[in-house]
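Bumping with the actual sequence this time:
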Amino acid sequence: MLRVKLGGMTGTDFLALVLVSMGWLFFLAGLAVNYSARRRSRPGVPLLPGLIGSVTVFFSLPPLIQRGMDVPWPWLWILLPLVLDPGCVPGLLRRLRQ
């Protein structure tokens, strides 16, 4: 019989892992939807994918830093999803210009 010992993951750690994974998947799916909608000149999902992506990065960075990874400019990585999502900051700037 094969026994696998988990590395001490508690229920709270597992729930956090699931929520962060869902946040990343929602950000990537929302980003794909927004770029596809932008190409077709249709409205996409405004603001939400970029905001979820930023919150997900915010909660993903501390475990990386605790494990010894050097993360240069953490605020850049937190704000990057807001800039990459065409429905977020670029969409707001485009609406202000009109």
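The tokens above came from a reply further down the thread. DSSP finds four helices and no strands in the chain.
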